[in-house]
User: What shape does this take?
Amino acid sequence: MYLNTFTRFNFSQFWVLSLFLLGFISCTEEAEIQTYYIEPEYDGPVVAWKLPPTWGENPELSGPMAGSFHVKTDAGPQGRIGVMPFREAVSTLSITNMFGMELGYDRFTEDSLKTVMTQKKVGNKEFEWVRLTEHNATQDPKMALLAVYRQEDETWLFPFVANANLINQEMNAFLAFLDSTTLRAGKKVIRAARPVSSPPVSKPKGAPTWEAPKHWVAGKASSVRIASYLVKDEKGNELDFSITSFPGDVGGLLSNVNRWLSQVDLPKIENSTSSPLLSSFKLDDKDAHLLLAENTEKTIYGALLFGPSQSWFFKIMGDTSLAKVEKENFLNLLNSVCFHDH
Amino acid sequence: MINPSKTKKRAYSVGARQKAFPWIVPLASVRLTLALLSFSMILIFVATLEQVRIGIRGAQAEYFESFYGIWYYPEQFWGGSFLNAVPLPIPGGYLLGGLLIINLIAAFITRFQWSGKKMGIQIIHLGIILLLIGQMTTQAIQVESRMLINKGESSNYIERFHGVELAITDVTDANRSKVVSIPEELLKPDSTIRVPGFPLKVKVRAFGPNCSFNFKDSPSMRSAITSNVNQGIGASANLSLTPLDEDFSNDAANFGYLVYQLIDGSKELGTWLAVSHPAGNDRWKMVHPKLEGMAFQPLRHAGKLWGMELRSKREYLPYSIELLKIENEFYQGTDIPHNFESHVNLNLESGQKRKALVYMNTPLRHAGKTFYQYQMNKAADYTVFQVIRNPSWLVPYIACILLSVGLLWQFSFHLVNFLRKQSKVSA
Assistant: This one.
């Protein structure tokens, strides 16, 4: 009977079965790429830009940076450009003082700020435009160009820190970059992740390592500061320790020493070789300069190392009584510095 | 003289129909029916055994949602050490169900008597055919998803229980976001995907439905599969992963993974790792702070900010559901749930709001979807609905009505005849 059944199986039966099964299989979903629009769900900050072709992105973001860039030159990456979002309104005075102190400026007031600040319209965005040029530098001084953009309660800072010649050369690129930005603060603060382009280096080339005393409290690093520590005593006295790095010699030994001396209200020196405050020493077997300048209230100890393409500054500054206590620790830290290049 | 009614009756007689459709006759065989039912019993037996090994979802996919399944005789049974090596093909649910439908329809045409006396049997068989068709259609086109809503919030999308997609969202525009989604079926290792609406090409390096992962101290300590990851969370958290088979068990937690490169023209921009969290990528922050970014790995390109994530396949709805209140009750003195309730607002496309109460076995139905109360976490203040899209959901109801009518008809017919005979006898 079964044999009979299946020998009688003909083409009509075959087609009925095939159509049934095909029809059934065709009911299943087909996988395909979909593109559609939705109401915005993402509540983080939106920071987007078009990168000028002469710039590259820095791989590691520090502090409040949402983006960090450099200018590509024949001598390697030069200068630092950043994108710093602040969720709250931050005064231009605070921002200017933050960078001004590094460049040897006295603390700005509302009045003195007007001498370095203008308004600048780039595309459809209105920026507060602050130009700070390093004090006492002879040629090609270091410069900080600060573009501050305000949008409702948000503040966006675009610092461009480099030698003045490089900034002037890259001005059009900087303006095009500012014009291309899309800026929107979010409910939650996130830092931009690594950039998509292959970055040249993760830290300033040849960045050293060091051992800091355990009671020094590590602070946030920034585009300028490689490291930052806060030292406090029971009375509330404070010292600020920093390691900074810049391309080139950023004005040389004398201008940097005088800038530091002015920060502790000590008179400038005329000659770097004859000053009792300044001495030569070896920092990881490299020729460096040590500044030990104590004033009645404020004191500064610093080490300056001028490399072939990069300069390194190790500085501790603050209350004199605490500085004297921590002097030994500072010198020990200098002894522990290692550039891992020999 | 020819009686037209008799001629008509003859034309619809079983013999006449068998003559008219001779090729259907073998398909209507009762023996075929019995053989198919026997195979169905074997299928159920085998699938029940396999359920222990591969879980309900696995057994369902392997044996019922397929034309055939391969079964290996259990090693622990008698003679298992020898027989276990032999793969045994088992006819699958689609094959048996499909053949049963054909067999029943063929019997309907060539074997059943089309008379009032047998009308009940015909209706019963029609109900069975409908039940089979309904079940197969449901298996083929039913989509099961979930909707998680936090208390006080609303949700306008559902996510599949199984299957992931790479979603790339342009969030640059403050008013709307553009989403490009690539389903897992297209994420084949070593394939390069050109994505409409996205300026970069996606090259798949590795993809899998499940993995385990851990943090390493340095990139060199990562497993081979993630050793080349140099962008995003995979690189910053130094994630190393081990591929695993997909878990089909009831409490399965599959972490799908994707290692992919982005290519701008001919320039490689880097390699990313994306891992999907089975309960939704917003749960990553609870796993580890380093992994929070898995829900949005940013990519800046040509003045736009894109967020990338591997997530459960998502479907956006033109309406949303807002969770107002949740309540759960337990049997006194136990942890056994007695009732889960979600008080919701259905925010309709038209802008109108409709209040609804969703609780066990009382779902919310809207626009072809049914929202069943599925999970609830009162401590964390969220509810989860199981969302079923089944266009053939009415078919079983109609089939059951037909079966009831058929049985009622057949029994009534016999009862009336019996009573008639009884009354004649007593007369």
